[in-house]
Amino acid sequence: MKHEILIRGQQQVPCLFFFGDSVLENGNNNNLLTLAKTNYPPYGIDYPGGLATGRSTNGLNLADFLAQLLGFANPIPPFVTATGSDILRGVNYASAGAGILDETGANLGERISLNQQLRNHEATIGRVVSLLGNQTAADGYLGQCLYVVCIGSDDYVNNYYFPLSPSRVLYTPVGFAEKLIRMFSQQLRDLYSYGARKVAVFGLGTIGCVPAALRGAMYGPQCLTATKATSGVFNDKLKSLVDVLNKDLVGAKFTFIDTFGITVSDPSSNGFQVPNLPCCMMSMGGMCVPLGVSCSDRANFAYFDGFHPTEAAAMIVAKRAFKAQSPSDAYPSDIQHLSKA
Fold it and tell me: Which end of the chain is more exposed for a tag (fewer CB within 10 A), N or C?
């Protein structure tokens, strides 16, 4: 596959930080004892050098494309390998299987929850203070950076909807969404207290319509209706939370990215002839079978495995998050405007 480079001139923010799950992860789980890692072929088949880096796709992921759109010449390094002055460009803390709730993803093994990712960021801030000389300089620098948060899918897939999960006994879909938002609100406030001012928060996508959920069933209104009853409720509450945070926190500029709305756009208009099947040979768990075959026409597939978008699909979400194609893509502003705020 030929890579489309999305770099738009000069770097628009001094640094870029990513928090989240497998949609953003680029290697933090590689050395963990976990089922949630993708550092084996056919993952990475289209990545430069054909390397399986820990990105859950065939090539570049959402974090890579957002970095390019913001003018970064190289990917933002994962926390586990970020060293020295490298951290001044930013750090990717994302971890496959991670959730808003600490217990999410326990069925997968080790993972780095959002709470732990925030603690890791606190450690990074200490290193930034050392590099820049004092806290005041660090605060000024970090306040100009962009922070991207994309998390919550695993709280449903590997918690609420996981077989025998106590969460489904204890909470209605609305009650569970409210629990997530309460925790997420505190986590985003913590991020603000660490100096973050420009924060893009991605809503949940069509988690009920991914190939692993459909298992060959037809992509269509039925799965979308079911998804709206869960992730749709969460997204509505998250969008409202963005308003609350912008009102409550001095100088805060939070924005909501409507991943669901972007994803359910007519797949054929995005060039995807195959919207509901995995490109790779899928295991029972929904991941690619190690060393298994993958489709040759990857640009025509929306999903690489049972859960994760192909490079082509990730690029579309990144482009629309960066520069809104529809007024509903981003609220109150897209990432391009947020970066300049």
Answer: C
